[in-house]
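Need tokens for this chain, all 407 residues.
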Amino acid sequence: MRLPNVGRRLVPALICGLAIATLWAGAATWYLVFHDEVLARFVSQQTALQYAYEERIGALRLQLDRATMEHLATREGLAARMADLSQRQAAMEKRQTQLSLLAGEAGRPAAMADRIAADDLAETGALGYASPITDSVAKTPAKPAPKPFPTPDAFELRSRDGAPGRQSMRETEQVLAGLEQRLDRLGAHQIQTLDGLGVRAIRGSQRLRDIVIRVGLDPQRFERQRDAGIGGPLVPLATDPFGLAVGQVQRALGEEAHLRRIASALPLRRPLSGDYSLSSGFGPRLDPFTRGLALHTGLDMKAEFGESARATAAGRVTVADYNGGYGNMVEVDHGNGLVTRYAHLSSIAVGAGQWVDAGASIGRVGSSGRSTGSHLHYETRIDGEPVDPQRFLRVLSESDAKFLDAR
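Here are the structure tokens for all 407 residues:
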């Protein structure tokens, strides 16, 4: 009686087992049939992923190499610019030294030329560099040497935290661009200063030449001074535009200096510093002693007894003694046939052979010799012949006198 119940329980279990066996058989059959295809697809997917990854890695590596090359090229460019700036600054300092020397030759303080460059170069500083710039733009100590204007310590490219060489390329380029602009501005100022020196020298030469002509003398008369022996080693001039301009300015300054020496040797200044009046002019007159016509070879200037008589130009004393009708007389040779005489002196303050500057006291006014009272007899002679001193004394205006005495 129990067997039917057991059969009823066994049937579901058998059905379940059969189903499981069927599923397992199906799965095993599917695995055996499609195993190679699934594996091949999986391998294909993994291979594709690997290729894509390697391609991406290659592209990134290529991009990195390109960026590195551009970075190095930029740094090398910055190093080249820094080297160029350093060379330009050295050239600017050399030019400024030349300008200072030219300013000295022109009789102007060298500081006038130096002041033009001081501000710009003080901002620029002394440049130093190292290659590659990735390491640093290091400070290069300058050799101790006299400089024509103040220059600060070596310039360094630094980041905000003070570490050299860590700032960005953009900041570095901005700094270099600023330095280039300041050097450009300094170069323009130097050219302007050089042009100004040349123009002033040419104008000064024209003014001095005009003074000589107004006296009635030919400037060619004084050219024989240049026949004196000259020489020295050959030092070729620079062939760059600035060097050629410096040579032209030097020639203009030399011509101005030559004409200034000529004009300074002319007896253009007054022989008496105080006020005076003429008691007798140059030319024919009635002699105060004979009352007959006679040639008066100079000017008689009324002056107080003992007043200082002064040289009207620089020269060498050739006579300082009693000389007949002249009384106590001083004669000064100014070169190129120009001579001045100061007569009727009460005393003589110089000796024969002595060099005197313009305005130097050579004696005191008196009435020695053939004289009727206290006065100064003043003569000018050209090649031994007396000429009217007024042709010299009336030439200089107040501004001309200041210009001539500026050196």
